[in-house]
Design goal:
single chain, 202 residues, alpha+beta, three-stranded antiparallel sheet, 12 strands, rod-shaped, binds zinc ion
Length: 202
C-alpha cells in the first residue's frame, strides 16, 4: 500500500513538474511583471490541471506554441484616467476625487490630484473684544487690534466693579465701595456695565 501510494505521488509530482517546466518555457519571452495577465491573454487559465495529469498527451497539446503576445502594462488609475497601457488599452474606471472640505483659505481640494471645486469659505469673524482682535472662529486668523477701551482719559490699566448687582465699572479701585474688585474688559462687555459717572472721565 505504502509503496503504491508513493509511486502514485512520484508520477503525479513529475507530471506536475513537467507541466510547470513546459509552461515556463512557453512564457519565457513574456514579461514577468505582468501580474498574471499572461494567463488572461493566452487563455492558459483554463488549461487542464492535475486532475487530468495522467493524460500526458492531452496536457502537452494543451500547451500551444504561442506567438509573442503583447502584454498590457497598466499604469495606476488616477482621478482623471482609468488604468491605461501604452497601447491605449484601458482597464477599469478613473478613481473618485478624494475631496477635503473647503477651508477659509482653500476651496474643496482633492488630496490625490489637487483638483479644486468651488471657492474658499468666508472667514467666520468674531468681533474684536477688549482683549482680542477680530478673530476667525474657523481658522483662528486675526485682523487688527483689540478694541479700544472706552473713556481712556484716566484709565490706569485696571477696571473695577462693585457687588454682583453693580451696573457700573470704575477706574478707581475705591470708588465702588466695600465690594470693589478688579474685572476684565470682557466682563465689562458681557455684563453690559456702564461707565461710572464719577471716576471714569470721558
Ligand atoms: Zn497594451
Ligand atoms: Zn482628484
Ligand atoms: Zn477663517
Ligand atoms: Zn467710579
Amino acid at each position: 500500500m505504502q509503496s503504491r501510494k508513493a509511486l502514485r505521488f512520484a508520477i503525479f509530482a513529475s507530471l506536475t513538474l513537467s507541466l510547470i517546466l513546459s509552461a515556463c518555457t512557453a512564457h519565457d519571452t513574456q514579461d514577468k511583471s505582468s501580474n498574471g495577465s499572461a494567463a488572461d491573454a493566452t487563455g492558459h487559465s483554463s488549461a487542464p490541471t492535475e486532475n487530468k495529469a495522467a493524460n500526458t498527451d492531452i496536457d502537452n497539446t494543451a500547451i500551444p506554441f504561442d506567438p509573442p503576445v503583447h502584454i498590457h502594462k497598466f499604469s495606476a488609475a488616477t482621478c482623471t484616467s482609468p488604468r491605461i497601457c501604452a497601447c491605449g488599452e484601458t482597464a477599469g474606471t478613473a478613481t473618485d476625487h478624494n475631496y477635503a472640505a473647503a477651508t477659509c483659505s482653500a476651496p474643496k481640494t482633492c488630496s490625490f490630484c489637487g483638483a479644486t471645486e468651488g471657492k474658499a469659505l468666508e472667514h467666520s469673524w468674531i468681533d474684536a473684544t477688549y482683549s482680542a482682535p477680530r478673530t476667525c472662529s474657523a481658522c483662528g486668523m486675526t485682523e487688527g487690534d483689540p478694541a479700544d477701551v472706552p473713556g481712556k482719559i484716566n484709565y490706569h490699566g485696571h477696571v473695577y466693579t462693585g457687588g454682583s448687582s453693580s451696573k457700573k465699572y470704575h477706574y478707581e479701585a475705591a470708588c465702588p465701595g466695600k465690594n470693589s474688585h478688579e474685572i476684565t474688559w470682557d466682563e465689562v462687555t458681557s455684563r453690559g456695565l456702564e461707565p461710572c459717572g464719577t471716576c471714569v472721565l470721558k
